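Annual report, structural modelling task.

Input specification for the S-adenosylmethionine complex:
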Amino acid sequence: MNRWDEEYKTGAHWETDRPSSHMNCLKKYLFPHCLILDAGCGSGKDVIFLSKQGYVAFGIDISKEAIKKAKEKINRERLNITLDVGRLESLPYKDGFFDIVYSGYVLHHTNISSSIPEISRVLKTNGIFYCVMFEDIKYQAASKFDESIDRQALFELLEKNFTFIEKPVFDSYDEEDQHGKHSHKRIRVVCKKVEPE
Ligand SMILES: C[S@@+](CC[C@H](N)C(=O)[O-])C[C@H]1O[C@@H](n2cnc3c(N)ncnc32)[C@H](O)[C@@H]1O
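The model returned the following structure:
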């Protein structure tokens, strides 16, 4: 069983019924009937929130267990959400399909040289990519869950595929989960897909 399925089997610490605070910041980019993808939707808190707000919501996640849990919730609530098990590096959607892609705390777990162009591919021209992710996760005692990404490589890829419509936000905070105390460096970007010249 992969790391993610294990986390979802036992109950991952980010699983709540409350939508992410980023849904509030995303609001200004949403419009009636827009097609929105939650890329790395986990067990569904944000994709369910978006569907309940009346948007045409899709979710994808690498974890079968997460999608199973999300499907149980959407069936209980009789919502119409398309959910897929899959990777951000190879998205099962047509070119230019979505108006908006939201991704919360996922991109640093992917191979960004594939996932960023894929997200751009499935967005319409002028479509919005709203992404919050970690640049760095460091446990107090070194851990297999420590992660870091190359900020320069990330921004080069983003600039190649998008234009920024908000100034990127960088912050950091400490947290404790079942694996111990750790610090996060976080990045939030909001960008728009532009046609290549
Ligand atoms: C920290 S969780 C965040 C889940 C959800 N977006 C949220 O904010 O609650 C990270 C998620 O990324 C998913 N994930 C990791 N690598 C992925 C990949 N390559 N493609 C798609 N999903 C991936 C995991 O299964 C997990 O659900």
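The chain has one domain: 3-193.
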